[in-house]
What does this fold into?
Amino acid sequence: MGKGRILVVDDEADIRKSVRLILSKAGYDVDEAEDPEAGVALVKSGANKLPLNAIVTDLNMPKINEVIVVPYLRSQFPSCPIIVVSGSKMMDKSAKLFKDAGVEFMAKPINQEQLLGAIKRAVKEA
It folds into this structure.
């Protein structure tokens, strides 16, 4: 049995692949989606029977604007921890807003140890 199930949402396939490899090697079950709507559909399809423990998402994606990504995911999975990984230019402001909302925020490029620490905390919280 794995350590938990994580949904990775990012429009960049290379980023999704990198995050999946990091998390898979650490023992997590990983689902990937190119946008939040596809991620929600994948999780709700029931194809993977494990409960969702955390979501790792980018902010800036073509189909959804950065202001509504977190509220949209929160509306679909209210109790699921969200970790935002972004290359946003508004890092300081974004980090504070997310922290106040109980969302962990980290900058791209992805730091493996930081990501694994955030996932471990999120899964424990979930």
Notes: Residues 112-125 form the longest helix (14 residues). The radius of gyration is 13 Å. The chain has one domain: 5-125.
